[in-house]
Design goal:
alpha/beta, Rossmann fold, 10 helices, two-stranded antiparallel sheet, single chain, 2 domains, Helicase, Ruva Protein, domain 3
Length: 255
């Protein structure tokens, strides 16, 4: 029985599970971290391809049952909250493959992206609207998109109909494929200061950039205009129009 409070919706569609596994390009030398394995439908595919699968499951009963459902010598099950799980114990270059609960998506992505030992590749099945926000281009950019794309190249995968889940969620899902940048996009970036700026920009989406930065950073509109002018950016733009490079240009003026 799925626990809706934990965002549990089981997917047991062969085509979808095979596609998710294929996106991850799993090699026989790979360690894969699976988050929220549930009944083990996806786990079965992962253990057949990876050297080692570490499945982190919050639900105590499901965690206890998983080794019985998926008997495999290369499977380790940890009954734990992924938000406090020690990622440093994983080998460098591990991959994440997961059908993650909707409520967890933003916080989990931020945690994984900014970890001292981050995954080199993530294939995640998330709410379709969230997948689109993660992969958005300037013009439709979101705070989540900036947060992820600073660290990963983001691509959309297949759409998975809500009808294929039990119980069905209210919306369709979509796979996202996140590939870690081989080197940081920007040198010597203070991520806390950078995201303080970006959050200020997105704090009032309907406002032009000068207005949202003024309110979000606690500065006057004249100061916000001066800041944007130095960065070579039009204050009439809105936050969703900016590229990561343009955000960095503003950041440099603040530093």
């Amino acid at each position: 029985m799925a626990n809706k409070s934990l965002g549990q919706h089981w997917l047991d569609d062969t085509e979808s599970l095979e596609a998710i596994t294929e996106y991850a390009q799993i090699k026989s030398s790979d360690t894969v971290l699976e988050i929220g394995p549930g009944l083990g439908s996806l786990t079965r595919y992962l253990v057949n391809q990876a050297r080692h699968v570490i499945a982190v499951e919050l639900d105590q009963e499901l965690a206890a049952q998983l080794p019985v459902r998926v008997p495999a010598g290369n499977l380790n099950v940890a009954q734990a909250d992924i938000m406090s799980f020690n990622l440093d114990e994983l080998p460098a270059g591990y991959k994440v493959v997961a059908n993650i609960p909707y409520y967890l998506t933003s916080n989990l992505l931020r945690r994984l992206a900014e970890a001292a030992n981050p995954p080199k590749l993530m294939v995640l099945l998330v709410q379709k609207e969230v997948a689109e926000r993660i992969c958005a281009a300037p013009g439709q950019m979101s705070l989540l998109g900036v947060s992820v794309q600073l660290y990963y190249r983001a691509e959309l995968g297949m759409v998975v109909s809500r009808k294929l889940f039990a119980p069905p969620p209210k919306v369709d899902s979509q796979a996202v494929i996140l590939t870690r940048h081989t080197k940081p996009l920007f040198k010597e970036l203070d991520s806390q200061k950078f995201f303080q700026l970006v959050k200020a920009g997105f704090s009032e989406r309907r406002k032009k950039l000068r207005g949202s930065l003024s309110g979000g950073l606690g500065i006057s509109k004249a100061e916000a205009d001066q800041l944007l002018e130095k960065a070579g950016i039009n204050g009439d733009l809105r936050a969703q129009n900016l590229t990561l490079q343009e955000w960095h240009n503003i950041y440099k003026q603040l530093s």
